[in-house]
Amino acid sequence: MKIKKYTAPTMPEAMKQVRKELGADAVILQSRETKKGGFLGIFQKNYIEVVAALDPSPVNIQQKQPDLKPKEHLHMPVSHSNEDVLTEIKNLKKLISLSHESGEAFPAEYELMYRYLLEQDISTDLSRSIMENVIHKHSDEAEADTDRVVALTKQELETQLKQLSFEGITFNKQVIQFVGPTGVGKTTTLAKVAAKAMMSHGKKVAFITADTYRIAAVDQLKTYARILNVPVKVVYDMHEYRNAIKSFHDYDLIFVDTAGRNFQSKRYVQELKNTIDFNDLIDTYLVLSMTSKPKDMLSVYEQFSHLPIKGLVYTKADETRQFGSLLNIALPHRLDIAYITNGQDVPEDILEPNAAYITQLIMEGCKDA
After folding, report:
1. E strands in 142-289
2. Confidence at 343, pLDDT banded by 50, 70, 90
3. CA–CA separation, 227 and 7 (whole Å)
4. 33 touches 46 (CB < 8 A)
């Protein structure tokens, strides 16, 4: 069995090296992102490292039914060649078990794409489902090369994302509120969406903030309110919240900023419910940062999952190179991705995404296809 390591700037280039030297029957044992070059650890570049294997003379081992032969015939000596084969099989199983979380390998080209999706922070279950769909839908095709697998994966991602509507604010509800953990940029996002509503749609806007845990947060929203020339009210409990809503009854849109807390704790979610309303007359958006760990995002969503969340807003897309987390909540739970922010400028650094845009973000590392 021939086992060799390959290093290339991108996944398609690595796979082309594997195919050129080991052929189409090669099996991917392991792949990971690594860094090379630079000076004293500075200016290093990202590379893909792939471990591939090829058995030029596979051995077919057939199980035989036991027979009633004399005892001496049951003690046949094992040849060194068979011992070598068994050793290689054991080593191969060990490599696969260490490198493949799912325990089920795809054909080489698809396996490398599966690993790319994992590296993009798409969950294991969703990555596996995507690749299984690609293989199933195109099982009648001739053996696919790297470029074809990349194209088919892009097509599958876009098809699945098109099931979402990607609705931002539709102006069907007067009250729009943003909830989410501390530090994700809710206040800045609120200001961006409000500014777009005013400038692009001519809407009359007012602000309410329930983020009274941080003085800086109140001051920040007041600063945005002064710049946009809109009124703002600070509320401390449900009574003040409802009175503020009533006082702005003649405004087109009322944007509500909420306190950022550790929403992995149910206690803070309950505190939020005691301060603001969640009902069908209000659109509530969950704001998450793209720099957060995927598991942390899922944990936060689980705390809010029993509330009427209209859609998701993802911030700080300019601070990461992994975009797979965009899918992990939206696709399984059929939640719209309303906005993605990619900077601090108000109102410029916000966009309304679609299926093609998110697919391109995730597959950007496959530049050769």
Report:
1. 175-179, 205-209, 232-234, 253-257, 282-289
2. confident
3. 52
4. yes
Tell me the two tokens of residue 343: 């900077």
Tokens for 227, please give them. Answer: 């710049």
Helix (H) or strand (E) holding 20: helix 11-22
3 state SS of 208: strand
pLDDT tens by residue, 238-247: 999 999 999 9
Distance CA 212, CA 209 (A): 8
Angle between the N-to-C axes of helices 11-22 and 108-119, in degrees from 0 to 180, rounded to the nearest 10: 160
Judge whether 169 and 193 are in contact, CB under 8 Å: yes
Classify strands 205-209 and 253-257 as parallel, antiparallel or unpaired: parallel
**From the CB of residue 369, how many other CB atoms can be counted at a distance below 10 Å?**
16
pLDDT digits (tens, 9 = 90+) for 243-282: 999 999 999 999 999 887 776 777 788 888 888 888 888 9
Place of tokens 């090829």: 54
Per the confidence metrics, is the pTM higher than 0.85? Answer: no
Q: How many Å apart are CA 13 and CA 6, to the nearest integer?
A: 10
* Position 145, amino acid: D
Distance, CA of 350 to CA of 123 (rounded, Å):
26
Q: CA of 182: how far to CAs of 272, 277, 288, 290, 316, in Å? A: 13, 20, 10, 13, 14
Q: Are strands 336-341 and 350-351 parallel, antiparallel or unpaired?
A: antiparallel
